[in-house]
Amino acid sequence: MVRAGLKWMFLIIGTTIGAGYASGRELWQFFGHESGLAILLFAVFFSICCYVIMHVSYQKRSSDYLPVLRDIVGDKLTGVYDVMIFLYLTTTTVVMIAGSGATGQAFDISYWWGVVIITVSLIGLFLKDINGLLAMNQLVLPLLLGGLLYILLLFMNDQGLNVWSHLHEQRNWTAAFPFTALNILPLIAVLGAIGNKVKTKQEIYVAAIGSGLILGIISFIYNSSLIQIADELLLYEIPLFAILKHYPFEILIFMSILLWFAIFTTAASGVFGIVSRIQSWWNAPVWILATVVIIAMVPLTTVGFSTLINYIYPIYGILNLYVLTRLLLYPLWNKSEDKHS
């Protein structure tokens, strides 16, 4: 039971910790100074959202996200969100594939070799259906989280940082809402596709509480570290590198490889969400659908995504806040609907 719960917990964390989170970019954009309470609220909101999505998914015995989405946002908005989730998963996965190309360039490997490496790895992963994704997450994520935590704690120790020194300053608490909302759509897509594989309610508790707790602790320590070097962060595209410059080159190489795996786990979750949705109307083997989807995405990596993201992401922000509200209030409005029915 606990082991099965940990399997889903790593799936949740793998979906959430993309390159944006692992590099520190996302955390710094939303949190920064006076954000301890915001991060605590995020951890609580995140656990509640994961619990509700998995609970609905488990009840529906769903194999793709549509039944779960319908239950959360209602019939009228399901079509809108179905398109938005599909677009979101596609854009983020394409950005991750392009990110692998860019990571390759950092190691003097050509951009296209970086793209080929992640493309072949993703197709290979889905040869074993969802089991390949789950096994990879269980192997890679403890390494990724452990490596990140090790570097952050080492940095804090070396700098003599006290993470509790600013606890009285908490004006940025509202950041918890958009930050949690940002991470919800891919979770609906991925967790909506495993309802028929969850065996017990206990698995849901382990996955939901465990993922919120781990992400909350790492976010708090990461954010506290970034605050100490806030003046330097303008010079770095990837905030993590501002911390790593204090350490030997080998550690930089090691963390860069872990960053690539963060890109890989997010891309894999994105492909899984898309494939499970396509499977509901084209019943082909997972690896064939994954191959078609991934190969179709490769040419899109050459498109200028910054414009697309500038238009699409603000819309996601608004729509996601509605989903977040529905998820957090789910127990309340679910009871009221039961009374009326």
From TrEMBL:
Keywords recorded for this protein, A-Z: Membrane, Transmembrane, Transmembrane helix
Keyword Membrane tagged: yes
TM helices/strands, residue ranges: 38-58, 79-98, 110-127, 139-156, 176-194, 206-229, 249-274, 286-305, 311-333
Coiled-coil annotated residue ranges, if any: none
InterPro entries: YkvI-like (IPR038728)
Name of the protein in its database record: Membrane protein YkvI
Domain of life: Bacteria
Lineage: Bacteria, Bacillati, Bacillota, Bacilli, Bacillales
Record has Membrane as a keyword: yes
